[in-house]
Amino acid sequence: MSLTVPPTLLEAAERGPVDDAEFVACIRESLPYAWQTVSRVVADLESSSADFADNVIPPPTETERGQLLRALASDAIRAGLERHFGVRLAFQNCHRVAAFRPAAVDSDTYRRFVSPRGQLLNQSPELRDC
After folding, report:
1. Chain centroid, CA 69 distance in Å
2. Helix, strand, or coil here: 100?
């Protein structure tokens, strides 16, 4: 299961659209490692003038790896994180999360990161089982 949904949030979802802040809080509580990783990458981006910042540190355990995969593989969760932080997220392998400034999404840097070539160049024997 990707998220641990509080009963009140589930009831709200059964009635109709849910508040984005409540959804983001559910993500933060359910996937703490993913939340911390994305938060750190966004903080790195905000403290620089670069077009993007990324995480190159593999998760310490399979539990944390699973959280990151679930957060970034879900369109709704990923979009919720992007809206909350005001960035575009990109993902390679099982841990390389990048946060791009919205203005950089149409840049060569972004296109290189999300390209097949970028993915292939980010492979190594250590990452094949991730």
Report:
1. 8
2. strand
Q: How far apart are the first and last CA of the chain?
A: 19
Please give the Cα distance from 58 to 101 (Å, whole number).
23
Contact 39, 47 (CB under 8 A): no
CB 1 within 8 A of CB 77: no
Whether the predicted model's global pTM rises above the 0.70 cut: yes
Residues in the chain: 130
Domain range summary for the chain, segments of one domain joined by +: 7-127
* Sheet containing 52-54: order of strands: 52-54, 96-100, 88-92
The residue whose two tokens read 């990109």 is: 90
pLDDT along the chain (130 residues), means of 10: 89 94 96 97 97 91 93 95 97 85 89 74 59
